[in-house]
Amino acid sequence: MSLFRTKEWWRTECGHGETFDGQSLLVVPLFGDNKKDIIIVSSHSGYLRIYSPSSQWNDEINNSTGYKITDLIIETQIADCIIDIKSGKFISGSQDQQLAVLTPSKLIVYKITLNTGTIDYGDRCAIDAVYEHQLPRFPASLIAGPFGSVKGRDFFCIQCLDGTLIFYEQESHTFNQSFKDRLLPERLTYVAKNDVFITINPGWIIECYRYQNMAEFGRVLVENTRDIKDRWLEPDWSFNVGEAVLAIQPVTLSSFEVGIVVLGERNLYCFRDNCTSIKYTKKLDYNPLCCHAYVIEPDGKLMVLVVADTDTLLVYEGTTLKWSAQLPFTPVAVTRANFQHLEGVVVILSDEGRLEACYLGAEPSLFIAPPMHRRGFDYQAAEQELIELRKSGKNTGRSGDHMSNATLESELLINVNIPNILEQSSPSSLITTNNDVKYPELICKINIELSSYTSLHDVQIILDVMKPLHVIEYYYSFSNLRDRQTIQPMIYINDDLPLLSSELRVTATYETDNGDLRIVQKIIQLPLRIVLRACPPENTTSFSATIKCLDPLINFNQLFPEFIPDTSQRQPSNALGLCYIHSGHVVTIVAGTNTNRYRVQSNDALSMTLIIQMLVGRLNSRLPGRIVTSIGQNHLQLIHSHIDAHFAIRERIKEISNEIELMTAQLRNVEKKLLRSVRETNVRSLASTGLPFIFNSTYELLTSQLDQLQAAQVVIFMRN
């Protein structure tokens, strides 16, 4: 909030119950460059009002005279709705200024004649329609200027609701132009010095198109001489601003330089006239609403008026904030005018029709900051106190970590007991492997005992295993835990996926009497017999991994004692075959006594993961730091191929998600336009606006992208 407020010079209300936007305000010397500026206001209800403010300073009342009834020189309703207004030389052979009014169905050019009246009755104006254009599409904005660098004439560019540009050279239609990936209208402006159009695409990239290129491309495209791939015009230059753009305005800095002011949601940019580099950038710490740029002569200083969402007007010279003042209301449009008795007046318009011309006075606001009650402050004592607090914090942190570890181990004890004998789910449940060998389906029943010496509250136990293992009851909760509590979860296999880990992760969370939240975690290795059975080893395999021991090898009856009773007498003592019960894949472990190496081999690479993990873990427990492992080149290539495929599908999902986000935003904007068109009373039908076609095409593209996203997610789920 600013300390100062703007001072009112002239104010009025534009109708009652009408709505206005940023395109409803136009300040221009309509009756000649040597005349004063005229305020032209259009409304969404179709009313056109032209004001000629005559306010001047009155020394008797020490204030301005304000609004007079004679300041309103024209008030008429010319359409159901006025979308945009522009002034220029729109009649051939005439150097006077005319007014172009854009309605939902027509572009009408009016000739406004000023009849100077007496002092009592003021000036009178006559408004006459010269010509009009019936529009084939629903318009969104109007741009006027000397396209093609013509002298003494101004042409029209109408941006339609679907982003298409329609060009008129005064009374004749010339060509249409569409941009790539453009379904909705965007900010558009024309720079007369360089004869270029500057706009922003849906990807928040500013693009520049030369009018000559657009005209040539549009005319050739009508003749159908281009291929389908060449139907889109490429920009002459582009710049990625990375944010939504609220306004684009060209400003003539000198006879040889033009600046392009771009107002974004977070930054204020000024581009050079070559449109390839930034003159300066200003980071905004507020949400801007609208802006207006102008040049102070004769110094050629570029000034920018920016209106913030806090009803504050900020005046910038380059990146320096020169002034800030509080506005009386929230405007939707701001500009600068030179009136008869005062120059450099700021004109603002609200969405409800409040029109005010003000200037930047130095009158402070009514808010007065309360006086500060200063008291003596001892900096040495404060510094000593700060040092003591830092020491206390360090000591508390160290003792807290030590106490927390000891407390966690003593407050809640988790004892896990896994029986050596697994239970069969049912006498008739048998699993048939790929080798036509039938095994009973086993269930591992685990006893987990929880004990505590103190009372614990809200105790929650979560059991987590990796697929294809499944826990029948993975969540337990106790409102209060005292002494001992036993739970008996059961684990079994419910899929034929390869098992990558046999860990059971037990996580316990609880609350102490003091209200502290604690977490205890314990990891247990499940018995391998739940997924593996001993079988004859295989000699021919595709993948292998070698583990070298620096000490003599350990026998299999010591490494895998649980599988020794299942081995037959004909099985060699230097090889152990393990078969997955559900998938039937066989993994062979060969012990080379001469080379002190273990070789793990299989025809399925993923099936080797669990065996290698358990073998390395058991060897490390008996021979810590005395083993070296190596993996075959083909195994590494397989891993790399899986990583590349996974990365490609993730990139594809990211690309599809970005497309869906863009399509969703476009569909939402089209729905808003449809709702607005339905609410407005127009003689044209809804189908003639082209909105249903845009809605259907956007919806079909969005549905197609969703199907592709679902297919890609299924692929990545299967890979995981």
Automatic annotation (TrEMBL):
Specify one Pfam family. PTHB1_GAE
In terms of InterPro entries, this protein maps to:
PHTB1_GAE_dom, PHTB1_N_dom, PTHB1, PTHB1_hp_dom, PTHB1_pf_dom, Quino_amine_DH_bsu
**PTHB1 GAE domain residues:** 444-522
Q: Provide a GO CC annotation, any one.
A: BBSome
| PTHB1 N-terminal domain boundaries | 1-364
Superkingdom, natural source = Eukaryota
Q: Name one GO biological process term.
A: cilium assembly
Domain PTHB1 hairpin, chain residue ranges per copy: 635-713
Q: Which residues form the PTHB1 platform domain?
A: 527-623
PANTHER family for the chain: PARATHYROID HORMONE-RESPONSIVE B1 GENE, PROTEIN PTHB1
Write the protein's name.
Protein PTHB1
Q: Which organism is it from?
A: Microctonus hyperodae (Parasitoid wasp)
